[in-house]
Amino acid sequence: MSYVAVPPSPNEPETVTTARPSPATALNGEPTGPAPAYASSSHHLSPAFPGRAPWGTASKLRAWQQGAMEKYLQEQPRDFLAVATPGAGKTTFALTLASWLLHHHVVQQVTVVAPTEHLKKQWAEAAARIGIKLDPEYSAGPLSKEYQGVAVTYAGVGVRPMLHRNRVEQRKTLVILDEIHHAGDSKSWGEACLEAFEPATRRLALTGTPFRSDTNPIPFVVYEEGNDGIRRSAADYTYGYGSALGDGVVRPVIFLSYSGNMRWRTKAGDEIAARLGEPMTKDAVSQAWRTALDPRGEWMPNVLKAADRRLSEVRKAIPDAGGLVIASDQDSARAYAKLIREITGTKATLVLSDDAGASKRIDDFSGSDERWMVAVRMVSEGVDVPRLAVGVYATTISTPLFFAQAVGRFVRSRRRGETASVFLPTVPDLLGFANEMEVERDHVLDRPKKHGEEDPYAESEQEMDEANKQQDEEDGATGEQFSFEALESEAVFDRVLYDGAEFGMQAHPGSEEEQDYLGIPGLLEPDQVQLLLQKRQARQIAHSKKKPAEEADLLELPAERRPVVSHKEMLELRKQLNTMVGAYSHQSGKPHGVIHTELRRTCGGPPSAEATAGQLRQRVAKVQEWATRMR
Q1: CA 401, 403, 404 angle in degrees (round to 5)?
Q2: Among 190, 447, 510, 535, which lies 20 to 30 A Cα-Cα from 155?
Q3: What DSSP state is assigned to residue 252?
Q4: Which DSSP string do the residues of 320-379 spell out, in sequence order?
Q5: pTM of the full structure
Q6: What angle do CA 220, 221, 224 make, to 5 degrees?
């Protein structure tokens, strides 16, 4: 069974041809019974390659889209939630379904709700290509007869929910809620969506990333209680990254991680030096991370040079491949764009939040063969540029939702064999997200509280909300944002992460060892990527063994032997040290603070809240030694 949308004739708003009979419909257009139980044809279809169509206008459905259509038509639900990985083609599925519902008079109009102004316009353009005319500029009053619906933002619905309720009450409406998790961004948005679209005839909810980390319920999403008593969102159809990768629908992602020595000054005036990727407290990781991203240091210029070399390699096979730097704030974005011009000799496209002209600059970049774009916050479902193949994650946002959305900008596949490359700082949370690309998650309403345990997926959505604001970073800054001064940074190639495995040995920027990984061909099948990475690491290890010991100025261990210690393990180490200090205090009569000061003087290093795992273990051993001597 296939569904092909064709432009409407002047007398008919939409025509869809189907290769097999559609469900029976009554005179008023409503189904009179279930759809025929068609045999699943997904394994007979090319899952990804009828050819790359313009965004949202594929002329033939992929296997997952076919399967989702068949399930929808069999069940004819009022609400349907489709979870599909970024780049899989949610827009094509949604517009094909809209076309079918319009043609069979199940609905008379369509309302698309999108997260951003830019994406709202993209929906209208995609719908127009298959003959569904949506007004992306609608604000109030009667809709022109030339349109069959509107494209609006969640913020717009939040401002005037009754306007949209009146529209869906007057005519049978399909509401497409794109990236539905945004309806939970605030209480007012969720309530507005409920008020506006509760009377809708049909509602189609879409999302491509893990659901919200908070427990705000999402409108029109069904939650089912599991055996553990916890309610989780229940999708009607799920198509995860792992399945899409196996089908060739999305690109495999190679993550290239960089560490290096960082030095910064705290607000108290203390100078701290640490190596990015070493076990540290959460605050110290954050400060080292910000030091790395400071454009005045050496880390960012070296990583940008490496990313540009990688882009040059990819462009040998994909001539129009582009790169995207995801920046935290406007000042950093401007500085990164200046660095790129110095490195490449060409200007980078600069997109600053949702400022006037941002959408046009993105569209212009998408249609060109320019090398680099630098964007602030336009990454959250707002950048859809299929030729993006190389990314630099130069922001301190560490929520799994934002990370998945950021990586989603690079995975859209146009031809088989394309790979995506994303450059990361060696930060435990980010490496964890990179290694869990294929993990599918649901939105959890009830979260058990575990004392003393830090869960990166239990963080609030504050970082995500800040990332999508239109104002500058300074507006939402807390004390820690300015609690330190970055003094210096250096970059060291650390490791490659691919398909849950880690490869490589540490190497200096510009070295042959680094180039081994930057020079991986841009067109490879997933199993070829894995094999090539294994060969490169084996060659590195063999070369390292031949060098004299005095030349080994880096930690020359394979990546899998250099695990990143989690915050949970750091909590355990600090707890162990405090327990030992407490016991020694009871034994010696010295106050806790005096003992901690003596440990710092004897072992060196910062206060225990900022100490590395190695420093904490050294202090535990020292206080044990002191306690033994007193016996």
Answers
A1: 65
A2: 447
A3: -
A4: T-EEEEEESSHHHHHHHHHHHHHHHSSPPEEEETT-TTHHHHHHHHHTS--SEEEEESTT
A5: 0.70
A6: 135
